Amino acid sequence: MRKKTTVRAAAAASAALLLATACTSQRGQDDKDAAADGACQGQQTTGITDKSIKLGGIYPLSGPASAYGTISKGVNAYFKHVNDKGGIDGRTVEFIVRDDGYQPPKAVEEARRLVEQEKVFAVFQTLGTPSTAAVWDYLDKRKVPQPFVATGASVWGTDDKHPWTTGWQPNYISEARVYAKYLKEEKPKAKVAVLFQNDDFGKDLLGGFKEAVADSGIKVVAEESYEVTDPSVSAQMTSLARSEADVLLNITTPKFGSQALAADAKNTKWNPLHIVNNVSSSATVLKPVGFKNVQGVVSATYFKDPADPQWADDAEMKTYRDALREHAPGSDPANQFNAYGWAAASSLHKALDAMKCPTREGLRDAVRNLKDVKVDMLLPGVTLSTGPDDAFPIETMQLMRFKGERWQLFGKPVDTRKEFGPPAK
């Protein structure tokens, strides 16, 4: 934990930045009047005109994390649907997708291509902690917005040196706190074994969990890591089983999440409560293992599951399904990653609407000044909120348990911002 003075200093710096770059203090017609009066002069308009917005996204369409690639289809379907309705404030959205294969050097190459050749307005939804970390220095130097990155690393909301980058999904420390709270209530003497990806993603969630269970009766008794280049995690799972822990915390990306679930199912002598992190909770991860083998697995979420029948008559879910069939034929509407992309794109739409100036600076400031913004694909009770001292848009999650052939929500949404405060800077 760093000193509170550091947090206050960072908050003050962020507040000063927002104040110095704000175009006006009002929205609606007042914003347009201010823009007309020249309040937005001198700001960057690359990639945006009165009629169009050009956005870029970097995803692992290939490689060990390719299961995430379909997120771009959900994003693209949303923007095409919006274009059919007249665009965003009359602007047609062009979304350019690049493949980095989950390789940070490739992500840098593609970011440069999007910025320098394609001249995009913003690089939206870079996916993965390693890839996002590889490009944010470059984008910050070029003053290009990098809004709503597809990674929950806590650094996106605590670092005050990269004002052009903002997270979207709940950060991994907040997610870890939800699992810790659950175990404190249901298994207060739990012995936990942890499988984690050996990078900032895995270490962030594991560190958050350890901090959240400190001074409780819950103990982490075994840890095993893996590299994204490893062929499997079977050896790690064998080692963890020897710990005889009664809880397994599975901090993995889809390929390895599926392997860990399968290994757990095969080991009939070890039957821990299996908690899988949100990024590996999609049915595409669980289905290859066999739904009968993942009964009772616990995770947490914040957006509506398209496979959950309780949303069958939900207006936004109907719109999503129809748009995906039309604009991404062959894509599975029940795939949570597609719904994730739709929800993230819808969130960006809200931020673009909130811009006080139609500029890169305007978007940068808008994503850092959201006030309980409702996004229809998010769960009831989950909204977007950011501020000078808190750049995490979503910090509320709800637990879910796999039963039958789908996830079922249980308990109440947990607002980690209110219960625990933001992660320390």
Automatic annotation (TrEMBL):
Record-annotated Leucine-binding protein domain positions: 52-403
Superkingdom of origin: Bacteria
UniProt keyword list: Signal
Signal peptide bounds: 1-25
Keyword Amino-acid biosynthesis listed: no
UniProt keyword annotation of rRNA-binding present: no
Species of provenance: Streptomyces afghaniensis 772
UniProt record similarity statement: Belongs to the leucine-binding protein family.
One Pfam family per UniProt: Peripla_BP_6
Protein name: Putative Leu-binding protein like protein
